[in-house]
Amino acid sequence: MTNTIRAEVITIGDEILFGQITDTNTAWLGTELTNIGIRVVRKSSVGDQANVILDVLHEAHQRADVIILTGGLGPTKDDITKKTLCTYFGVGMVRNEEALALVTSFFVKRGREMTDLNRGQADLPANAVYMQNDWGTAPGMWFEHEGRVYVSLPGVPFEMKHLMTNRILPKLRGHFNRPVIKHKMIRTVGIGESFLAERIEAWEDALPDPIKLAYLPSFGGVKLRLTTTGNDEAILDQQLAEQVEKVLPLIEKNVFGFDNDELETVVGRLLSEKGLTLSIAESCTGGYVSSQITKIPGSSAYFWGSVVSYSNIVKVNQLGVTPETLDQFGAVSEETVRQMAEGVRKALGTNVGIATSGIAGPDGGTPDKPVGTIWIACSTDERTVARLLKLGQYRDQNIQLTSTYVLNMLREELLTL
C-alpha cells in the first residue's frame, strides 16, 4: 500500500478572520488535492502576524507532508508572508530576475508606472523555487525543507487556482508516490440524519475496510459520502459501486442523485428527458424556487416562467384562485395551493405547475397556522397533489427547505409520468 500523503492548508490575512472576505480557497484546494491522492488533514486561518504564522508553520511541519499557504504576498507592508518564510527557513531575501521580468512586463503592457514596492514582488526567500503567476504579480513559491514540501500562493482565488492547476498540482504529482482516494456521494432528501442512520445501521456496520462512511447533513436531506483509498482506481470504483448497490434498496425512496447532483439538476434532466415544461407559482418563497431552477444552464428549454403571487389579488387575477376559496380556507391552505399550481400551469401553458404558499415568518402566524406552516403542490395533466409542511421559526431556513421539498415533490411526480 502506498503511504498516505498528508496536507495542511493555511490561509493568511486579517480580512479572513474579520469576516470581510469569504475564504473559498480552502474548499477548492481540498477538492483538488484529494483528486490527486493527497489527504488534507487540517485547514487553518491566521492573521497578518509573523509570530502566529511561524507557530502554525511549526505545527504543520509535525503533521503534514505538504503545507500550502495562500495570501499575504502583495506589495504592501501588511503582506508579510515572504519575510516570515525567510525567518522560518533561516534564509535571506534575493531578487529573482525571472520574477522581475514578469512584473515589469505586467506593468508595461498596462501602461502603468512601476514603483519600488512593485519591484519588491520579485524578491523571494533564497531557497524558493519560483513558480510563475501568469495572471498577477504575486509570485508562487515552492520550498523543500526537512522532508516537507511548502507551497506559497497568492490569496486572490483566480490567481491561486491558475497557479495551482498549471504549476503546483503537476509538480506534486511528480514529487510524491500517491495513493488513489475515491469518493462516492449518495444524495438523499426528506429524511433526517438520525432516521437515515437507523435505517442503514446494519449496512454501515458491515462496511469493509478501508471504506469509510460520513454523514453530511444539509437543508432537507443528508449526503452519504463513501471514501476509500488504494492503488487501483478501477478496483476502488467497483468496491464503492458494490456498496451503493447494497444500500440503495434501504433508502431508494429518499435518494435523488449521486456525487454532484443537485435537486434542480435532476429535475431539469427529468423534464428534458420527458419533453415536459414547467411553470411555478410562488407566494412564501418569493421567487426562490424559480431562482434555483434557472441556476441550471439550458433551463429555458423546459422552464417557461413563474408568478410570484404575494398578494391575494394576484392569486385571483393571475392564477385563477377563487375568492370563495380564499375566504373559506385562507391563502395558506391545501385548497389555495392546489388552485395556484393548476392555475399557473394553465395560465402559462405548461405540462407541469408547482406552487408554494405559507407563513415563512418571523411574523404572521396564528394559533391555527403558526410560523412554518406551508403548503406545496404539484399539478400535471394526470393529477394535482398537495402536501403540508410544518417547519420552524426561521424565515430563511423555511424558504430554503420549502424549495427543497417542492422540487422533490416535482421529482417524485415526474418519475410517475
TrEMBL record:
Residues 8-175 form the MoaB/Mog domain. Pfam families: CinA, CinA_KH, MoCF_biosynth. Belongs to the CinA family. This is CinA-like protein.
